[in-house]
Amino acid sequence: MRSGGGFGMLALSALLNPNQSLGATVPISTPKLGKAKSVIWLFMNGGPSGLDLFSHKPALDKWDGKRFPGSIKTLFPHPGPIMKSPFKFQRHGESGLPVSELFPNIAKHVDDIAFLNACSSDSHNHVPACFMVNSGISRVGAPCLGSWASYGLGSGNDELPSYVVMYDHRTAPEGGANLWDAAYLPGENQGVPFRASDQPILFLNRDKNISSGSQKKQLAMLQKMNHWHATENPNQQELLTRINSFETAFKMQMTAPKIVDTSHETDATKNLYGIDVEESKIFGTQLLMARKMAEQGVRFIQIYHGGYKNNWDSHGNLEKAHRGLCLETDKPIAGLLEDLKQRDLLDETLVIWGGEFGRTPTSQDQNGRDHNPYGFTMWMAGGGVKPGITHGETDELGYKPIENEVTMHDLHATVLHLLGLDHEILTYRFGGREQSLVNGLGNVVKEIIA
Amino acid sequence: MTVQKLGKLKKLRKYRAFRLTLMCCAAQVIGLLVFINWYENDFSQHCDDVAEIKQGELIQREIFRETKDRSEKLQKLLSTLSRDDRVTNRERQKWSEQIENSTLSYIASLKQRQPKFVSPLSFVKYQSANMASTLPGFESQGPSLKPETSLNEDASAHWSLKRVSRPAVPQVSADFKTWCKNPIDQFVLEKMLTAGLTPNPPASQTRLARRLSYDLTGLPLTEVRSDYWAENPTNGSQSEPTYENHVNELLNNDEFGEHWARMWLDVAGYADSNGYEEDEIREKSYTYRDFVIWAMNNDLPFDEFARWQIAGDELAPENAMAVAATGFMTTAPFNTFRPQKAERMEELDKLVSTYSTAILGMTVGCARCHDHFYDEISTEEYYRMVAIFSETERTQAYLDSEGGKEYRKYYDPVKVRQDELDEMQYRRLREDSIADLEDFTEKEKNILRKPINPDDFEQDRLISICKRCLNFDDSYLDDDFTPLPEDEERYNQLKAEVNFYKLQVPECPPQGLALGGSKISQMAILENGDLKNKDDGEIVGPGFLASLTPGLDHWDADQWRRWAPNETEPLPRSALATWTTDVTQGAGSIVARVIVNRIWQQYFGRGLVTTAGDFGIEGDTPSHAELLDWLAMELIDHNWSLKHIHRLIITSATYRQDSRVTLNHMELDPENIYLGRFKSRRITAEVMRDSMLLAAGNLNSTMYGPAIMPPIPRDAVFNTEKAPEETWPIDYEIDREALWRRGIYVLLRRTMPVPILKLFDGTDGSFSCQQRKTSTLPTQALALFNSPFVTRQSRFLANRILQVESQPELQVQLLVRLTLGRHATSSEISNFVEFLSEKPAQTEYRWKEKNLEALCQVLFMSNEFFYIN
User: Fold this and answer.
1) Residue B163: inside a domain, yes or no?
2) Could you tell me if B773 lies within 8 Å of chain A, comparing CB atoms?
3) What is the H or E stretch that residue A300 is in?
4) For B819, what's the count of Cα atoms within 13 Å in the CB-facing half-sphere?
5) pLDDT score of A114 more than 70
6) Which end of chain A is more exposed for a tag (fewer CB within 10 A), N or C?
7) What confidence score (pLDDT) does residue A105 get?
8) Does the beta carbon of B148 lie under 8 angstroms from any beta carbon of chain A?
C-alpha cells in the first residue's frame, strides 16, 4: 500500500475533504484526454440479446430453423437450431442505424449513440462475466471500473458518494456487493448502494427513538470530545479527517433524500422518464436520480436493471421476456438521453448500455437463446463519444466478431480515456506490482471518440 | 531489457550456480564430518537439554496460570458461562512432546538418508539456541554462531533470497543503554539516531495497558488500575507484578488467539461461502478458522503451522487439527453453477497465489502468463506448483474416525470445564505437595508458592530441586477432591455447569472442510494462462521455486522428491510443505522473515517491509534489514514460537513509547519509518464490534464452532431468490446473547459481507488481504449514528450503568471507564453531566435515560474510542 506524503504537508483543503484519506495517492492528473465528468452505466443484467435489439442480422431469417454451421459454444449443451429474431427492425435518424421495434423511444436517439457491435468477453457464466465487465478479471479481487474512475477523478461532491450503485429493490443482482467492490483501492472508492426509498443510503435515517435535535446535540458533544482528544494528540491528520466525516455525514442526511425526492418534478419530467407508467416507474425514477447525481458531481453511477429475478437472461420465451424488459427500460433511457441533452449535460456525461454478454443466434428451449460472450452489442452516448456510428461487426449470424472486436479491456481503456484518465498511468501498487484496470491487455477504441 | 541481454544474464547465473554447487559440495563433505563427530558427542545431550528446558517452561507457565489475576470482576459479570475453554497444560505437554518427537524423528530420518541433504548448519543452529537463555533477556542474547559457509552467499542475490543469518546487535552509546530493553531497541535506536530522532518517552501505564489489551486480545480495557505492573520493580521483591508477567498473562488468554487468528485469516482469504452466483454457505469451513485460533493460542510452532496448512492430511492424518489446517487450501472462491473448466484454473491460480503470497511472500500469479518480469519465477515453475494441487479436491474430511472425537476435544463444553476442574485439582495437589515438603523451610515453601520470577535465582534453585513433586500426571486425578479455598466458588460453579452440559452436549462436527487427494500429477504450461492453449503446452510435473532453493538454478522433474518425508510413497504436497519450512535447503529463511514482518506490521502499522505479501524484487526493501533477520533468527532458534516474537516486540522499549507526534517527527519522519514513537491507529471492524459489546456488558465469550449470523438491515440482503429473512436474519430483536460473540465468529458470506464490518474495512475474502485499509468515510459516521447495532448497544450500556450508579457524576465516570479504560477528567465530568441534565424542549418520557443512552453512543463514536494510542 502506498503511504501518504506526511500529515503536515497536506493543504487545508485536503484536510477538509473527508474523501481524501491518508494512504491514498492523490488522484493522478493527466493532460485532459476526454470530456466526460461522470458516467451513467445502464447495466442490463443477465445478457440482453443484441441480435433482437440493435444488431440486425437478416441472415438469421434465411437460416431460421437450420443447424448452426460449424461448432458453437453454449453454456447449456445441445444448442437448438438457429432462430430468427421475432422482432422487426427499422432504420432510424440521419445515421440510418437499425433498432428493433422493442425500443421505439431509444430509436429516436440513434444519432447520439455509438454502437459497439462486436464486443467480447470470456466467460459463459453470469457472475464471472459480470466481474469481467466490471473489473477486467472474471473472478473477485480486482477493483471495478467505477472504483477506478472514482479513484482517478476524486469526489465531485463530498455529501454524496463518488460511486453509486442502484438496483431493483425487488431483486438484487447475483454477485452482490462483489460487483461494486473497490478491492485494494482506498475505501472511499467503494460503490455505495443507493435506493429509491425513504432510506436511500444504508444507515442514513435516524432510529425512530432519536430526534433530530438529540442527534445534533450528540454531534456537538462528540466534536467537543474529539477536539479535546485532537489537542492532546496533536499533528494527527487522521483524527481531523474523522472529525470532518461526521459533519459530512450529518449533511448527507439532508442531501441524499433530496436526490430521491421526485415530488417537485414536473409531470413533463415524470412523463419523459416514464415514471408515470407502472412498468417503467422504478427504472425511470432511478435514471432521474442518476441524472441529478451526475449533475451534482457523482462520478460513477451504475444502475442494474434486472437482478436475481426479472432479468435479461432469456433462455426460454425470449420474445415475451425481452418485450417486457424493453418496456421497462425504453422510455426511461430515451428520457435520460433527452434530459441530459436539454440540460447541456450529455457532453460531459457518458452513458453506457449493455450487459455482461449477449445471446446466441441458436435457440434454446425452442424460443430462447443461450449465452454468447464472443460477440455482443453495447453502446455509448455522450461524454465525448462520436454520435450516430457503429463500430465493429460480427459474422452474418452474429456469433463472433469479424472486424473491430472490442474486448472488455478495450472498453475499460476507452471509458477511462473519455474521463480524461490514461489507463497506463492510472495505477495502484498492490500484490507486488503497479496494478491497473486494463493491465496492458486493452487499447482505447479511438474510432469512437469524437 | 532485450532478449539477448536476458539470455546473457541467464548464462551468467548458470555459471555462478555451477561454481556455487562446487563450493557447496566441498562444504558439505567437511560439514558432514563435523556433524558426525558432533552428533555422537553432543546431540544426545542436546536433546536432554531441550527436554529439560521445555519442562522448566511448562512449570513456569503453570505457575503463571495459577497466579493469573482473578480480579477481573467486571469481565466476570459479563459471562454467565465460562470462557475458559482453554487447552490444558496436559494437552500442551502432549503437544510439545508430539511436536518434539516428530521433529526428532524427522531429523533422524534425514540422517539415515543421503547425507547430502543434511546440513550441519541446522544442528549448529539448534545448539546455539540451546546455549541461549530460554527467556528473552537483554544480556543473554549472545550472538549465535554465524555459519562459516553459507549456501546462498551470492552477494548479488536479492536480499530476501539470501539465507537468513543472525546479524550482530549494534552497540549503543551509554546515554541510551538504560532505554534499551532488548536487542530490538538497539537495532531501532541505531537508525533512529541516524535519522536525527530520539525515542519518545514511554507511554503512561494507563495508555500502555489499553494498548496491550487491544494488541494482544483485540478487546479494550473496561476498568482502570494503577497496578497492572510495577513501574520500577525493586529487585528481589517478588510480590510486585512485572510488565513481563502482565504480558505473559495476556499472551495466555484465549482472546489472544481469537484476535490474532484474524490477521492470518485475512492473509488466507478465508470466507464462509463459495462466492459467485449461488454463493452457498460452507457449513464446515469454520474448522479451519478454529484451527487458526487454536494454533495461535497454543503457540503451534509456525513451521508446523505452515506445513499442516499445506499437507496436514498427509503429514499427520491421525491429528484432527492437522487435517483441519488444510482448510487453508480451500479458501478460494469457486463457481458451483454449471462450473466451467476455465474456472477451475482460476481456483487453482488463487490457491497457489494465496499460498505463495501468504507464506512465501512471493507473488507468483504473474508467472501464469509470462516468466515473472522481476522475480526469478518462470512460467514453468508456476505450472509445476499448480500441478501439485491440480488433482486435489475439497473434501468434507472426517476429522477422525470416531465421529470427530479428536476435534471435539478442543471445544466440548463438558470437557473444557472438566479440564479446568482438573487444573484446580493440580493446584490442590501441588499445594499439598509443597506443604508436605519435609526438608524445606516455611520460607522456602513460600518462595515456591510465588509466581515465577526468572531473576529469582533462589526460586529457580528450589524449583529445580523439587520439580518432580510439582508435576503430576493423570493417574493422580480423582473424581472428587476438595479444592483450595480460593477455588471453591469457581469449583461449585463448574460442577453445576458440567452437570448442565452433560445433558445437552451439542452436535459436534465429525467433518471439516479440508483438502484431500494426493497424487503425483501433471499440468500443461498454458500460453497466456489460457486454458484454450492446453493442448499445445509442455507437460510438467510437481516442483517448487528454484530461486528460493539455495544452490539450485533450475527445477528438474524429480527434484521435489528430495523433500518428500516418506520415501517409499513420496507425495508432492508433503514435499512442498517440508521444502517450505526447510531453512537450510528450502524456503525457510524467507518464510521466517515474512511471518515476523507480518507480526511487526500489526503492532506498528507499518511492516519492516511494507509489502507484507511481496518480498520479491518489486517489493519494498526493508527499513531495518538486520532487525528483520534478527527476528527471523529468533523465531527459528526458538522452535518457531510466534509468542516468543510477540513477547520480544511488546517488551521492547520501542513498543512502549508514547504515541505523541511532535513537529520534529512530522518534519523528519512523518511515516514513522524510524520508530521514534508509537504510531496510533484505528481499531479494525471486528475490534470495534467486540469493544462495543464488551463495554455494554454483552460480549459472549463462547469459543469455536459454527459461525453466527447477526441481523443486518433488510436493504443489505442480496441474492433474494428467497425472501430476505430466509437468506439472512433481518430482525434486530433476535440480536441477543447467542449472537453477541466475537467478530471472528461472524459468518462471512462473500456476496453479502455484514455491512457494519465491511464499512469499516473488514475483508470479504476476495483476495489475500495483507493489511486492512483504514478509510475514513461519512458512511461510517452514518453507521455509527444510525445503525441498530450501535444504538442498541448504546442502550444496553446505559442500562448497565443505570443499574449500578444513580448519581450523574458517578454514571459519567463509569461510562468513561467502560469505554475508554481511563478515569474521566474534571472537564469531561462537568460537560457530560451537563449533557445528561439538559431537559429536552418537550419533556419526553424517560428523558434522563435517553440522555444517557445518547451520551453512551457519543463515547462509542469518539475518536478516542476508535484509536489505539
Assistant:
1) no
2) yes
3) strand A300-305
4) 29
5) yes
6) C
7) 97
8) no
Beta strands in B178-284 (DSSP E): none
Length in residues, chain A: 450
Residue among B68, B220, B404 at smallest CA distance from B821 = B220
* β-bridge pairing A433-435 and B393-398: unpaired
CA B447 to chain centre: 34
User: What is the Cα–Cα distance from B12 to B8, expressed in whole angstroms?
Assistant: 6
Q: Do B778 and A224 touch (CB under 8 A)?
A: no
Q: Could you tell me which residues come within 8 angstroms of residue B516 by beta carbon, excluding any fewer than 6 positions away?
A: B313, B326, B392, B393, B394, B395, B397
> What are B601's three cell numbers?
506490521
The CATH number for A12-448, chosen from 3.40.91, 3.40.720, 1.10.3470, 3.30.2320, is: 3.40.720
CB atoms within 10 A of CB A85: 26
Nearest CA in chain B to A245: B778
User: Is pLDDT above 60 for B535?
Assistant: yes
Phi first, then psi: give them for residue B788, nearest 5 degrees: -55, -35
Distances (CA, A) of A174 to A45, A437, B251, B719, B766: 9, 22, 43, 6, 15
Q: Please say whether the beta carbons of B556 and B296 come within 8 A.
A: no
Domain boundaries, chain A: 12-448
In the structure, what pLDDT confidence band is assigned to residue B493 with cuts at 50, 70 and 90?
confident
Q: What is the mean pLDDT of chain A?
A: 89
* Contact assessment for residue B78 and residue B697, using Cβ atoms and an 8 Å cutoff: yes
* ipTM greater than cut 0.90: no
State the pLDDT confidence band at A216, using cuts at 50, 70 and 90.
very high
Q: Which of B532, B555, B586 finishes a domain? A: B586
Q: Is B500 on the interface with A (CB under 8 A)?
A: no
Question: Which of B277, B661, B828 is closest, CB to CB, to A236?
Answer: B661
Residue B413 CB burial class (10 angstroms; 0-12, 13-18, ≥19): buried
Q: In this predicted structure, which of B10-19, B225-234, B520-529, B765-774 has the lowest mean pLDDT? A: B10-19
Does A158 sit within 8 Å of B778, measured CB to CB? yes
DSSP letter string, B20-88: HHHHHHHHHHHHHHHHHHHIIIIIHHHHHHHHHHHHHHHHHHHHHHHT-----HHHHHH-SS----PPP
Q: Which of B666, B766, B854 sits opposite A217 (nearest CB)?
A: B854
Pairing of strands A376-381, A113-120: antiparallel
What is the domain extent for residue B700? 685-759
Share of chain B above pLDDT 70, in %: 75
Provide the mean pLDDT of chain B. 78
Rounded to a whole number of angstroms, the distance from the CA of B206 to the nearest CA of chain A is 15
User: Are both B283 and B384 inside the same structural domain?
Assistant: yes
A236 CB-near residues (< 8 Å, 6+ apart): A7, A230, B661, B680
Instruction: For residue B686, give the amino acid letter.
Output: E
Kindly state whether residues B73 and B212 are assigned to the same domain. no
Say if residues B669 and B679 touch (Cβ distance below 8 Å). Answer: no
| Residue A444 binned pLDDT confidence (cut-offs 50, 70, 90) | very high
**Which cell is B407 given?**
476435534
C-beta separation of B125 from B444 below 8 A = no
Q: pLDDT tier at A418 (50, 70, 90 boundaries)?
A: very high
CB nearest B752 (choices: A9, A23, A176) = A176
Give the C-alpha separation, B85 to B493, whole Å: 15
CA B58 to chain CA mean position, Å: 21
At B236 the pLDDT is 56
For residue B768, the one-letter residue type is S
Q: Tell whether B19 is within 8 A of chain A (Cβ).
A: no
